[in-house]
Specification:
The protein has 133 residues and is of the alpha/beta class. It has one domain: 3-Layer(aba) Sandwich (Rossmann fold). Helices cover 45% and strands 18% of the residues. The chain has 5 helices and 5 strands. The protein has helices at 14-26, 37-46, 63-73, 88-96, 109-125, and strands at 6-10, 30-34, 51-55, 79-83, 101-104. The chain has a 5-stranded parallel sheet with strand order 2-1-3-4-5, sandwiched between helices. Helix 2 runs parallel beside helix 3 (63-73). The longest helix has 17 residues, at 109-125.
Length: 133
């Protein structure tokens, strides 16, 4: 059933995108990529996506701005934020803006797989994301 799920990876770091893609394809997901938030929104206008995994710090449009736009225009799509700056303020800000999960860099492949899997099952079950406020 995972093969029917499409994950959009948004990161300006090509190597990070390819690494996350490799992990998620191995887990059985279909994967699309964008190198910034604006490109991701353009892709979302044309292609159905089930989950977004996005870095926070990117040029053109950062992950917070992408998150806000997704929650306004595509509120049913869960967003997982990735940050190299895993301080409590970055994490809190992302969760307050509506992020469903977050991952801190550097990450291990099983961490990415676990967080996406948890989001996948929450999406399938129709259960809301826990309130963190």
């Amino acid at each position: 059933m995972k093969t029917t799920m499409t994950i959009l990876i948004v990161d300006d770091d090509t190597m990070a995108r390819k690494l996350i893609e490799k992990i998620l394809v191995r887990e059985g997901y279909r994967v699309l990529q964008a190198d910034n938030g604006r490109a991701a929104l353009e892709l979302l206008e044309q292609t159905p996506v089930n989950i977004i995994v996005s870095d926070i710090r990117m040029p053109v449009m950062n992950g917070y701005d992408l998150l806000k736009a997704v929650k306004e225009r595509f509120p049913s799509i869960p967003v997982i934020l990735i940050t190299a700056f895993g301080d409590t303020y970055s994490v809190r800000d992302g969760l307050v803006l509506g992020a469903d999960e977050y991952i801190t860099k550097p990450f291990k492949s099983h961490e990415i797989a676990l967080v996406v899997e948890r989001t996948y099952w929450r999406l399938l079950s129709g259960k809301p994301v826990p309130d963190v406020t």
